[in-house]
Amino acid sequence: MNNPIKAIVINKEDNNYSASLSQLNENDLPDENTTINVLYSTLNYKDGLAITGKGPVVRTFPMVPGIDLVGTVTTSTSDEFKNGDHVILNGFGVGEKHWGGLAQKAALNSDWLIPLPAAISPKQAMQIGTAGYTAMLSVIALEKQGVKPDDGEILVTGANGGVGSFAIYLLSQLGYNVTAATGRVDQSEYLKELGASQIINRDELSNPGKPLQKERFAAAIDSVGSHTLANICASLKYGGVVTACGLAQGMDLPASVAPFILRGVSLIGIDSVMRPKTDRIEAWERLATLVKADYLDKISTEITLEQVIESAEQLMEGKIRGRVVVNCQ
Ligand code: NDP
């Protein structure tokens, strides 16, 4: 079989970086044990960096980008999956060092795949994508630390971002009292619709602050890093917990040990990319029960493979809000 496959392909020759919608053959696909008809992929910030060449995401060329995908297994030599199974992939270096989801077909290692939960559709899985999955991992981390809805305010930073908006939604679905920190306070109504009870301006957290501040938050989900994360640590209540998954403000962490040794606070790192399979399955099963279809439709738009390159430029220019789902068929 050697049917043509539409795919976004990134090349770099003599320092000329290019991305185009190309036609591949099945023989061109990597030598992996499972082949998938890709139903949907997404455009994450990382994909935008890869496609536009604005960040060093792609490690080998040529590369098919796309860190998330959902599709139907067509062939597999693994015992785990059979033809017709619906599977999800997030991360594992796919779209960076292994060919990814922005194509009609993909060949992947079955170890990277998990089953699509029965309660959600393929499109819904990509409306959720890495952003929702990372937010869910963060919420589960708070739960595992014993954070309860009646413990008090839970702070979510980067509130209008992919991870932040899902974190607000998931926490509110679970009955937590959520405070959203945002640079776009004009979006307060939207954040309240997602489930935030209080909105604060992110400027309150983004500048250098005292090592110990007034105890305010029972817990926090941070995707911003830098001074924001330092100020969160300093303003957690005694025994509070913060998860850190991102660096939207910066990679640095200009904090002191005071909150850890005087208030017993905990800082929990969240990585979604290399996360073990059991954690992935747990997170996706939880997402399938918590996320409602009307919320997903409200926060996402659908495009085709033909529109991916233009949309990636718009994403990098900050002109897109919410999740972009790519219909790959
Ligand atoms: P988005 O770009 O969608 O959102 C980031 C949000 O952060 C923005 O919407 C904005 O929210 C806020 N923000 C932007 N710049 C600043 C700044 N200078 N200071 C403070 N806040 C700022 O990204 P995602 O939500 O998809 O990802 C968030 C972070 O998490 C990224 O750094 C990403 O790389 C990381 N990430 C990590 C993962 C992991 O496995 N560890 C997985 C997924 C993402 P607002 O306008 O409301 O202020």
From TrEMBL:
Residues 14-326 form the Enoyl reductase (ER) domain. Its EC number is 1.-.-.-. The keyword Thylakoid does not apply. Pfam families: ADH_N (PF08240), ADH_zinc_N (PF00107). Keywords: Oxidoreductase. Signal peptide: none annotated. It comes from the Bacteria. One of its GO terms (molecular function) is oxidoreductase activity. This is MDR family oxidoreductase. It comes from Pseudoalteromonas marina.
